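Recap for those who missed Tuesday's class. We walked through two folding examples back to back. For each one, the amino acid string is listed first and its predicted structure tokens come directly after. Nothing is annotated here on purpose, so try labeling regions yourself before you check the end of the notes.
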Amino acid sequence: MYIRPQLKQNLNDCREARPDLRRLSPHHLSSKVRRMLGAVADRGRGLRKGENGLALVEVLIAVSILTIAITTYISAFSTSAIAIGREDRRVTAKVLAVSQIHHTRAQAYQTAPVAYPTLTPPSPKFTVTSNATAIAGKDDNIQQITVTVQFNGRTLSLLEDFKVDR
């Protein structure tokens, strides 16, 4: 009886997988059993020596590279979020200082030294102070205005300008 080489290979593969089938010979098998043996033997073919497939080392290297890339992305994202928050506070302080200068210049002139009314900051963490001092040896109708904006006690903006009594 002629036995196809593929069937012979399938039978040998099954014998390797299940030692209790070693006594089987192709002559004892029906066509249905031969098809079942072929299907069972084909299941594990991707992991056999010399065949294409991913090894455990390749998978571990790929997972490691992916982990490093994700960690780097998350680190860069959090660093940029911190920098954006810091820059937002600095810009808010600068805008508050300029607004306070304009607000002080719009107030009625008072004799120095005086503290003109301040604007309400957008957050209680911001503190705005405005002082006007007379310039020594100069005209009494000129004051130097100093505006300081702090965030949590740390000075973020210091701006100076002049106010003239007209």
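Example two. Treat it independently of the first, because the proteins are unrelated.
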Amino acid sequence: MILDPNKPDPFVQSGPEPSIASQDELGYCKQQSSITFGNSTRYYIFVLSLYCLAVIFANSLALNFTIICMTNEKNVSSLSASSAATNESKVIEIVEIIDHHLIASNISTNEAEEPPEYSYTSKEQGWLFSAVAVGSFIGAIPLPFLTSFFGTRIIFTIYGTLSGLSMLLTPTAASVGYAALFLMRVFQGIAVASLLPTSGSIVHEWAAVAESGFAVAFLSCHQQLGQIFTMPIAGLFCETSFGWQGIYYLLGLMTLSGFGMFFIFFRDTARHHVNVSHDELERITYDKDCDDYSSEHRKPPYLKIFTDKSIIGVWIASIGGHTGFQLFSQYGPTYLNKVLEMDIQKTGFTAALPFIGALAVKLISGPLSDHLTIISQKKRCILFASISQFLMAFCIFALGWMPIKTELFAKFAYTIAIMASSLNVVGVVKSAQLQSRQHAHVTMTVIAFINSAIVLLLPIFVSTLSPNNSADEWPKIFFIIAILVTLTTIVFNVTCETDPRPWTHQSNSNTNNSHDRERQKN
């Protein structure tokens, strides 16, 4: 749609005239196609990117479901003990609860007496699940440097291809031995490390500032979509002649084909895409400084980023936010069933429902944060972060205190806490995106590090304070984490910024300009 010059541009905010990067300054693609998708190429980019993000996340979850088919019932029941070692344990717990009766009913008596196809101890299973977090650590270390030098298109494709190939090789690796299977899980974790940084880069390069909330929330839906897709498909394959191996071949092919399309269609910036019209480019670059696109700024100023108080505030807030979320992700089903003695079928439904609700919250909160223009961008981020984290902290505290010791109250607090945590994507995450601009991938990589560390350390914390999973032990855990979430959110509110930080405008003479010019040819 071409804007009417006699009417105000809906993307234009009131106030002083912002700097607009001209098309010459941006190096706009000279070979423009006549196909512009109705000036909406960026939305096709968002959908394709979401697909690729979701399949990588789904790949990391597949083993949590197929382990039920790979092992016998005895080994499956032992998962609840090992599930405390990983962020995917919630999925194992949920599948065990929901599908336990299906497994028993679909295995004949003769089959049930046969030895399991694969037999792993609880410790081995725990390490298979933790391998994703280990791989995420490994994959995140070089990611900022690789992305800064080669660009998002190449690096994300490499990480995605690694994930797809590891999925295709997983059935073979399982038959070879435990070490080979563990290695495939590490490869899948390496790819997971790229999810947050890639999302940050795509939002900066392809989303208008006025729709950044929508873009951040939309791309973050890959977590919920990965879970929603993998659970029923994995269960279906387990009950067919294809066996559990089928889900790996399917996801592997989906991943490789998706990243093939991504590499063909995606470009690191909108200004280099042949299908982006002049009108759409103006929308995307409005209120963005041309310094954001200068080749002289390709190398991130790491020292300035790591010493910026507002960025440090984002990372501190991420510690509290991810700890609270992982508490429910890893231990929610266990707490509801073991501590509150909730019926296992009700536990499965209660544990799964909030994550579906979280998807809806993200899809609503993204556009809402963009259109709530009666308050400043900074106040919007503080508002949504406060609602998200303070509400989650309150629910965590309430579960520890349990003033109303009923099953209904526990369900309500559990559901609200998880749905509230998803609102933080337009709070802390959006703030990090807006102030980091072209260096968002660096900020997001550190957040990915934080999440991986929490995944590995939280089980130690919980097992220390609650070795018996008793009702008397869990309140201490809830109270400590509720205080942590509250304090880290206060730090964020005090240090929050949304305007581009000074280091997003300052040049760095060490950048390889010739390499950037070579990238622009593509």
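Answers for example two:
The chain has one domain: 37-506.
Residues 309-339 form the longest helix (31 residues).
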